[in-house]
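Quick one, tokens below:
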């Protein structure tokens, strides 16, 4: 037994005594009043690709009716969801990517803004949390012009990125900004045209909308690569620096648990299902063979990882460690 000051208690007894309620002589509770979290923590994730800083920004998440929207063998789709502990509704991330080259600050996709309800529209807040301001963004590159990638271009009736030039594949603007295409589109598709016109027209009127062709070198280290099928001008962006490469592939995949294991599965949002499936095989194979990192708009946040070829016409997504 060792001495512990005037109490002359062994150390263990002293610790026990410190937990005794003085008033009643019984052990008292050692807990604080619970503090309930009323909001999510900021959603951003930075990493370096060579000399370029890439910061993944979350715009939020939405439930996706996977069994209804995915196109393929319904039994295999249901089995894949169950095997991955998922139900018919799959929580789907909305990821954008901020690339700081040192000379330019470039945002790839702008999120949904207020167009998909209260669970999205978090991009600008997360941009600020990551240490940047919207007016610092020099250019916005769009993988395509679906609502969840363009809605965040506007903040109310003002351009959310007042100093930025928006750049997008010419095939995409020719399709979605066409009054004639909207007129003949099915009723359920007209909202995509309307969202495109509301979100892009202010930039076009300000002289800040530019188009490019497939394969264009946009700035040093960033190249556009076509991945047509999901939309007529769907584009991936390759970010390369000092031998490192990250391919930002937009909507090549919506539900990782299903589509990597079965690349034949497409989604109802695909404008050309055949082309979209072909892109699955091509892009999966190239990413697996060359072992570069990919970033997906709808892969679970932060949407970064690699593709593994299982050798049996199936693939797997390996999230960044």
């Amino acid at each position: 037994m060792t001495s512990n000051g005037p109490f002359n208690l062994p150390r263990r007894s002293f610790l026990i005594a410190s937990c005794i309620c003085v008033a009643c002589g019984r052990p008292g509770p050692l807990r604080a009043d619970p503090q309930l979290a009323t909001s999510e923590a900021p959603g951003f994730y930075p990493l370096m690709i060579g000399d370029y800083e890439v910061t993944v920004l979350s715009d939020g998440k939405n439930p996706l009716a996977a069994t209804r929207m995915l196109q393929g063998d319904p039994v295999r789709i249901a089995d894949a969801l169950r095997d991955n502990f998922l139900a018919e509704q799959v929580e789907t991330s909305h990821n954008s990517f901020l690339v700081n080259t040192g000379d330019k600050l470039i945002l790839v996709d702008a999120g949904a803004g207020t167009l998909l309800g209260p669970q999205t529209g978090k991009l600008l807040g997360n941009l600020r949390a990551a240490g940047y301001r919207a007016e610092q963004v020099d250019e916005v590159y769009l993988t395509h012009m679906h609502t969840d990638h363009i809605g965040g271009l506007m903040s109310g009736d003002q351009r959310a990125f007042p100093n930025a030039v928006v750049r997008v594949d010419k095939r995409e603007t020719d399709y979605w900004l066409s009054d004639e295409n909207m007129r003949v589109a099915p009723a359920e598709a007209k909202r995509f045209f309307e969202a495109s016109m509301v979100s892009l027209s202010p930039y076009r009127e300000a002289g800040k909308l530019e188009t490019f062709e497939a394969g264009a070198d946009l700035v040093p280290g960033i190249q556009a690569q076509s991945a047509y099928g999901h939309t007529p001008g769907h584009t991936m962006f390759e970010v390369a620096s000092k031998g490192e490469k990250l391919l930002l592939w937009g909507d090549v995949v919506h539900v990782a648990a299903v589509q990597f294991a079965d690349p034949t599965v497409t989604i109802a949002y695909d404008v050309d299902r055949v082309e979209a499936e072909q892109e699955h095989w091509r892009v999966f194979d190239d990413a697996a063979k060359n072992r570069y990192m990919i970033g997906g708009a709808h892969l679970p946040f932060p949407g970064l990882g690699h593709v593994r070829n299982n050798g049996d016409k199936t693939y797997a997504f390996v999230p960044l460690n």
